[in-house]
Amino acid sequence: MTLIDCIGRRLKLSPVVQVDLLCLRDSVRQIVDGLAPPPDDSETLIDELTQELLPGWPDEWLHSERERWDQTRLYALEGLAQVLLTTQQYLPALQAALAAITIDPIRETAHRIVIEIHLAEGNVASAVRCYQHYEAYVQRELGVSPSLQMTDLLHGLQDPKRERHRPQGSTPTQAPVSAPGGLHRQTNCSHPRDAAATLSPRPGIRRHDGQGRGL
Fold first, then answer.
1. Beta-bridge mates of residue 157
2. What does the radius of gyration of the chain's CA atoms come to, in whole angstroms?
3. What's the pLDDT at 211?
4. Which residue from 129, 166, 168, 188 puts its CA 20 to 30 A from 145's CA?
5. How far apart, in Å, are the Cα atoms of 57 and each of 62, 66, 76?
6. What is the 3-state secondary structure (H, E, C) of the chain?
7. Which of 50-59, 109-118, 154-163, 168-177 has the lowest mean pLDDT?
8. pLDDT, mean of residues 60-79
């Protein structure tokens, strides 16, 4: 079996030689494009996508190829996570998204997918915690905030127990929970001083009108 073909003065690999990198790219592309279903053993595919390209090789020509591979596997892992999320395979979807985060912790896309997975499973507290961790991280590293696409994932969340026990026809005393670290809306008071004015004084404390007269 010939492994290398000679064409004139040029050498190339024989068509019988399979390159694992190229085969992996083709497999992932078919899954993400919907041309093939996710494999039963998603863990093996995810592990393959976490592998670096020729680690330890110092050759300069590899810098651009490594960057190209890193971007390819980031998109592949995120696309795979979305496909698995759609089919309600939450554990492998989470593993794929977390693998993408390991490659590039700054990139927001995979963090959003993790939040979507937690919300799909009903794990609201886990989704909020993931948001808070990412928000603190990018603030510390870059001084920026998460995008609106990310904060919108958590807007409109409410406490189901509070909603269930609220009398019919009554209005909530608080607005729906907004994204952590963001602005909190006030529904009943237009200004913080107005909110303070609605509080009754504690027993035993006398207020004065500023002219010595007790109220």
1. 177
2. 27
3. 52
4. 188
5. 8, 11, 24
6. CCCEEEECCEEEECCCCCCHHHHHHHHHHHHHCCCCCCCCCHHHHHHHHCCCCCCCCCCCHHHHHHHHHHHHHHHHHHHHHHHHHHCCCHHHHHHHHHHHHHHCCCCHHHHHHHHHHHHHHCCHHHHHHHHHHHHHHHHHHHCCCCCHHHHCCCCCECCHHHHHHCCCCCCCCCCCECCCCCCCCCCCCCCHHHHHHCCCCCCCCCCECCCCCEC
7. 168-177
8. 92
Question: Mind listing the pLDDT tens digit for each residue in 94-127?
Answer: 999 999 999 999 999 999 999 999 999 999 999 9
Q: Which pTM does this prediction carry? A: 0.68
Task: Please name the residue that has the structure tokens 């190209």.
Answer: 68
The rounded mean pLDDT for the chain is 79
**pLDDT confidence tier of residue 38, bands split at 50, 70 and 90:** confident
Query: Are 108 and 147 within 8 A, CB to CB?
Result: yes
Do 153 and 112 touch, CB atoms closer than 8 A?
Answer: yes
Tokens standing for residue 66: 């490594």
Whole-angstrom distance, CA of residue 150 vs CA of residue 127: 11
The two structure tokens encoding residue 140: 């510390």
Among the listed residues 130, 128, 133, 134, the one whose alpha carbon sits nearest the alpha carbon of residue 146: 134
CB 79 within 8 A of CB 32: yes
Q: Answer yes or no: is pLDDT of 42 > 80.
A: yes
